[in-house]
Amino acid sequence: MINQKIDQVFRAFADVTRLRILNLLKRKEELCVCELIEVLHIGQSKVSRHLAYLKKAGLVQDRKEGLWSYYSLTKTKGAFHRRLIACLDECFNEVSILKKDANSLTCCKPAVKK
After folding, report:
1. Which of 39, 60, 110, 113 fits 54 for a cystine, CB–CB 3.0-4.6 Å?
2. Predicted local confidence at residue 43, as pLDDT
3. 8 A C-beta contact, residue 25 and residue 31
């Protein structure tokens, strides 16, 4: 991994909102943007901006289903990413806002197609 990529990964961890997103994705394999908006109580554009940063850092991946975008932790990255996420997972259990987010996580139901 080149130094720029390492720097980008650690910068991704340097923001509370991005840590909250990673925490939620660690607890549930895949989340739609609307679920993140609901739990984090922030706007769609801000959530999308943070998800784009995490994606660029190689920490999350997305898939589209119609108008819906679903995000999950990247599973294909090397041992470096896996160890960082595992380390963060241990720390997540000690931070009250992250515990609160996990408890607030509810299922978002897509709109019924007519």
Report:
1. 60
2. 96
3. yes
